Amino acid sequence: MRTNEYAAVILEELQQAAHRLDAVQADLLVERILASRKVFLAGAGRSGLMAKAFAMRLMHMGMDAYVVGETITPNITASDMLIIASGSGETRSLISMGEKAKSLQATVAAVTIFPESTIGQLADLTVKLPGSPKDKSNSQYSTIQPMGSLFEQTLLLFFDAVILRLMEKKGYDSTTLFDRHANLE
């Protein structure tokens, strides 16, 4: 298969994944984000990169958004929210973060393939995303892509869709977000 043919198959897989997103869970996440004073994002590996991209867009919207582990990340409190992005829902470091956030009475949300996972069970709100875990023997989705690529790509699309919903609810447009875009580049 040629590169453009692979790209077409990947787009097909993402189209199917988009149709499987749960609008009720997504809208609940949007409402919880709007009700939070600060929003913290955590993820490992490529899922963590998608979480960082989401944190950046939340910042562009004027929200106090932070990536766990960065040097400028403040403390989490009961009026805040931690969103954990984890395909498996079993990443030990993310479980520890979720437990700590819960002990401080912050809201915890999980975006995962497996709502029944440790992180999914720990969370106050779980959003199930379609995708294939790194270990494909435990997958209900067929993909030509390696490891967790389908989940990670769906995660980015989902987070961008959440941003669009937040923009709609706040009456923002791209100009509003661009006003907060980095200008020391």
From TrEMBL:
InterPro entries tied to this protein: PHI/rmpB (IPR017552), SIS_dom (IPR001347), SIS_dom_sf (IPR046348)
CDD domains: SIS_PHI (cd05005)
Domain SIS per the UniProt entry, residue ranges: 29-172
Name used for this protein in its record: 6-phospho-3-hexuloisomerase
Record NCBIfam families: RuMP_HxlB (TIGR03127)
Family from the record: Belongs to the SIS family. PHI subfamily.
Family matches, as Gene3D superfamilies: Glucose-6-phosphate isomerase like protein, domain 1
